[in-house]
Amino acid sequence: MSNSDALDQRRFVLRLNEATLGFFGAAVLLLGAVLWSTHSPNVEKTDFSLTYVAARIVHDGLGSRLYDIGFQKQVRDSLFEHPNPLFYEHPPFEAFFLAPLGTFPFSTAYMLWGLFNTVVWLMLMFFLRSFLPWPRENLGYLCLWFLFAPLGVALFQGQSSILVLAFYAMAFIKLQHDRQFTAGLWLGVGLLKLQFVLPFAFIFLVRRKWRFLGGFALSSLLLVMLSTIAVGWDGIAGYLHLLSDVNNNPQNLSYGSATDMPTIYGFVHATLGREIPARGLNLVVAFFSIALLALVARLWQSVGDRASNELMFAAAIPASLLAGSHMFTHDFSPLLLALFLVAANFPQRRYRGLRFVLGTTMALFWTFAIYFLCVAWHCLFLMCPILLLFAISAMLAARHASQQPTTLGQLVAAG
Asked: How many domains does the chain have?
């Protein structure tokens, strides 16, 4: 089979076949889900209600008070009968971009934002296909997008996690073409979830990828400027104060309980929170987070072929999620790219143990019910070891792909 024939198998062909029908079926399903959610009786309790409050505040020219919790509560209670008890803690530039939605009633704004996220989801499925050769069957590929629960949660909650997945994906595509500056630009826009994107950028800092970091710095600077326009310096100071307050109060349900977070921060708090004070807790979390990110960076430096680089990019995604502070179900969204990349570069049959670990962890992440059970039982922090196991296994697979047989002990030593 020629290379062109193989490529054709990985692309959606614009003719009436099962792949095209599946794609349009996916579009109808997503659009129907958004319209149904818009009329759901619980729509006011979605996370988008917090974003809507922020959009209204910035739209009304009151951005400097955006991170005043008392003022947020006042605006929130004036808009909703049964408001979400959480507070808006996203970067100011997100509220700046979404401020036009503040001109619409809440249900209309929710629908428009959901439709936008639907378009992003569909575009990702379509354009990423040529970079994700597994599975070979297009219908199976489509189904795996829908089996990954965090995307559906992000769409229903009106979160920005699907966009963050898109920015990770764009960074990956640009790196595939060795356009590091542009890759950094795209990742920088992902600062919508800065708690995950900053650790990912830290990996490139350790690797001394200055062109990538130059692009990242440029987009970051532009977003800081937009944030200043949106909320002013007083608002920026309020945002930094709120982040500090959130980090120092992991038990505060209004900020999101740490035990509901599958990060190193959440796991350490859930297991050791009663044994050590908050300052000690933060030091432990910082040590393990930096150690994990440095390990990924050092190992990435030692691989060179395409498969190994794809696997290391895949490993860097869960590592950046683990090193983040706040993380909930929808924040798993970027992990989908890592799952597809690992599946496309799965270890050879002679690495049975590694294949078993990777296969098991991937199956768990694609098991729809696990996320909801963990949330219902308030034990999402238990996903942290699974994420860590997946990240380490992906790194081992990268070493094997570069024909450097490695044990776990040698992997740690190499870092």
From this structure: 1
